Amino acid sequence: MEQNPYAPDFSALPENLPVFPLPGVLLLPSGNLPLNIFEKRYLKMVEDALGTNRMIGMIQPRGGDETRLYDVGCAGKITEFRETDDGRYLITLTGISRFKIDEEIKTNTPYRQVRAGWTPYKHDLEPSPCLDLDREKLKSLLQLYFSSQEMDCDWKAVEKAPDAKLVTCLAMVCPFDPKEKQALLEAPCCKTRAGAFMTMLEMAVKARKECNSCH
After folding, report:
1. What residue ranges do the domains of the chain occupy?
2. Local confidence pLDDT in tens for the 215 residues of the chain
3. Rounded to 10 degrees, what is the CA torsion of 40, 43, 48, 54?
4. What sign results for the dihedral spanned by CA atoms 169, 173, 178, 180?
5. Which of 153, 202, 186, 166 is nearest to 26 (CA)?
6. In a 3-state reduction of DSSP, which class is residue 15?
7. What is the DSSP letter of 2?
8. Which fold has domain 10-125?
9. Who is most buried in 73, 94, 121, 192, counting CB within 10 A?
10. Pairing mode, if any, of strands 16-21 and 55-59?
């Protein structure tokens, strides 16, 4: 069982949350997401977050339209921060908990804010269970998938990582489309997410084989 060291008590989660809409970007509880911040509105968002609870909500726009957001995102805490010579912020968000948008708040800030509903995802703050992954099957699928995507992999790190941490990391880095990323985010629990992730790998590998056979 692995406890997120950055997770606050459930009662300490903020009612209002700044949100950063990015298509195809997935943050999961306990996952680490590096971000390069350069837009003025999001520089301000990071500064304000650093001055309060250090929390930012990552969420995807629907269909690439930034004005329409999915209902569910994941809040992360700024756990690393560096300012560059050209005024950018390089930060790492560590995933804390998913949230549901109860409503968007009218605000004077240049970035958007929402009233966050945490209750459906209270279990995100609990230690991650062992998932009993079929490691051999997963490794076989990953080898085929990474090869098709021309991606490198640290196989020693894969072998050493606990099940829940491995699925979280792989789900975040694999270049699935935004709808697939959202499905992984909204999976009811870690075990369901692991099953969905394996299915997506299988489908991607199968599609690649069928595509290659047509040429």
Report:
1. 10-125, 135-213
2. 467 888 889 999 999 999 999 999 999 999 999 999 999 999 999 999 999 999 999 999 998 677 899 999 999 999 999 999 999 999 999 999 999 999 999 999 999 999 999 999 999 998 876 688 899 999 999 999 999 888 898 999 999 999 989 999 999 999 999 999 999 999 998 889 999 999 999 999 888 777 666 65
3. 150
4. negative
5. 186
6. coil
7. B
8. 2.30.130
9. 73
10. parallel
Question: CB of 61 within 8 A of CB of 69?
Answer: yes
Residue 27, sorted as left (phi over 0), alpha (psi -120 to 50) or beta, turns out to be: beta
H/E stretch holding 173 reads helix 163-173
| Nearest residue to 22 (alpha-carbon basis) of 45, 6, 5 | 45
Give the N- to C-terminal CA distance of the chain in Å, as an integer: 47
pTM for the full predicted model: 0.92
Neighbours of 104 (CB within 10 A): 12
Please give the C-alpha separations between residue 144 and each of 66, 89, 204, 206, 209, in angstroms, as whole numbers: 34, 36, 9, 10, 10
DSSP H or E stretch at residue 87 = none
Number of residues that make up the chain: 215
Q: Measured between alpha carbons, how far is 75 from 91 in angstroms, rounded to an integer?
A: 14
Q: How far is CA 129 from CA 55, 68, 148, 196, in A?
A: 25, 34, 31, 17
> Which pLDDT does position 213 carry in this prediction?
60
14 φ, ψ to 5°? -75, 150
Residue type, 191: K
